[in-house]
Amino acid sequence: MRGCYERFVFLEYEPEPSEAAATATAPRRERRQPGREWRERERGPVVVAAAAAGQPDHSVPPSGLSCSGCGAELQCCDGAAPGFVPAEKYRSLSESAAGLRGAVCQRCWLLTHSGRALRLQLPPEQHRLVVSAALRRPLRHGRGPLLLYLLDVLELPDPVLPQLPALLGPDVPAAGLLVVGNKVDLLPADSPGHLGRLRQRLVTACVQAGLREAPLVDVRLVSAKTGFGLEGLVSRLQRSWKCAGDVYLLGATNSGKSTLFNILLRSDYCKSRAPDVINRATVSSWPGTTLNLLKFPIINPTCDRIFRREERLKEEATKTEDQLSSEEKKYLNHLKKQGYLVGRVGRTFQRQKGIPVVDFDPDALSYSIDEDPRHSPRKREEREEFTYNEVKDARWCFDTPGIAKENCVLNLLTEKEVKLVLPTHAIVPRTFILKPGMVLFLAALGRIDYLEGEKSAWFSVMASNLLPVHISTLNNADAIYEKHAGQELLKVPMGGEERMKEFPPLVPQDITLKGIGTTEAVADIKLSSAGWVAVTAHAEQKLLLRAYTPEGTALVVREPPLLPYISTIRGSRIAGTAAYRTKKPPSLVENLKTTGKR
Q1: Given this model, what pLDDT does residue 134 score?
Q2: Residue 464 · residue 423 · CB < 8 Å
Q3: What is the DSSP string of 173-225?
Q4: 116 neighbors 218 (Cβ within 8 angstroms)
Q5: Is the distance from CB of 107 to CB of 84 less than 8 angstroms?
Q6: What does the pLDDT look like over 116-153, one tens digit per residue?
Q7: How far apart are CA 43 and CA 49, in angstroms?
Q8: Where do the H-state alpha helices sit in 299-386?
Q9: Predicted pLDDT of residue 55
Q10: pLDDT of residue 6
Q11: How far is residue 21's CA from residue 270's CA, in Å, rounded to a whole number?
Q12: What are phi and psi of 162, to 5 degrees?
């Protein structure tokens, strides 16, 4: 053992120096290029006081129009309330030809362009009340709504799923419930058939949550970020057209609802003209980005449309990667670096756009040698709108505010810390072999002490690749935490002694496990939303562990583990340490013919 502790942050998963330098400089306006929507900022949001980010005008009433990014009502009278637009900008937009339609609030603009987040004054139950009221709207087309509940598979057991029956109540005549497990792209395949095992875990979670009133029509696994499983989800949703009315996306904060909303908006599920009329929802790692309802109209899946869609899917399934365009290959390679499972979401029904008419102004192009070129004022493009006939009988897909998770460590973190804790790329398992008397730290957010056991055991960490893991002895663990919590060594929380004064202390919970074999984990120790540690031990070996999480957060012993064979995804032992070299399995692209190359 090198000294009293070891630090294991694998440099190949640290931000590139160029990215780190960019984070320290003032943000530049991002130039969007066609087909490059996937280029998201890697910088965490910075909190600013809402009142300091723009001046309000208390004499102006709310607009009655919604922010196209988060759904909040646009207003300029209260800088600390949702939907705020600085008074000067609000007036200039109101006086323009397009008005406030399609505009975004200051909070969404800052999240998208500057990585800055505004703290808003919201009642604790605001999000839940919005969802509850939406589900109790009058029936459309004589049918109840289809509820699409999205959960983060990393968060199983989902903390909000058991609350769903109470949220629905007996007065919500739902046509059905479709449960979708998101973020499967972040998890490596620990054995053949791992997706079938994950799906069965979702089914079990639904049964344990008591979801019997609303008929469970299906359980799906997807990645809203990489597109895996989404073509299948669209087909399943279209089959529910005849028996359901509107569709509501439900789920906890950070489950990926807005990301799913955005990709469905550009799929065969929405009307072909919708992407030209409706803006994408604002997506951020900060919990609770969506504040009200967002919606797009669902396309009617007629027999002809279903046939044309199936023909497109069959044709695309015969393609190899070599047959893709250079832009498609580049996009696909980008997704492969981010997730283990990747899909391709296309569109069958696209609106044919006419040739744009160019306004020719000879006066603006003619100037004498003594004059500077004169630029005519740039007109704001007229925003397209749906006609009455297009939407009078439409069914809508609604994105709803995320329901806050209680006892969650994310509620204690700043925006920069949340960005480090929430995994955005494929998680690379980190495995360590510990003897009794050794301690594992996951940043300063979790700790596991191996107190008693006859032999060594394996501890596999599944958490964001940016969170450091430290191994120490039991005798030195308290001193290490006292000295390095809030500092660079443990990384999160960050902010030094002042930050740790307000951060809750770690509280212990004793855990007793019994091993089942050297290749199969017996349980996961889930350290709230910071990640989990899979414990693998010799058959029949008893282990006494003591796990710590910040006070007020949930520590869960997950049995059986989510990925029972995760300890087998490792390289050779690193000499002189408790760590094994990491191994990252290859990515799999859905609906793409393989060429036999590795």
Answers
A1: 74
A2: yes
A3: --SEEEEEEE-GGGS---STTHHHHHHHHHHHHHHHTTTTSS-EEEEEE--TT
A4: no
A5: yes
A6: 555 554 555 666 677 777 777 777 777 788 889 999 99
A7: 19
A8: 303-317, 326-338, 362-365
A9: 82
A10: 41
A11: 40
A12: -65, -20
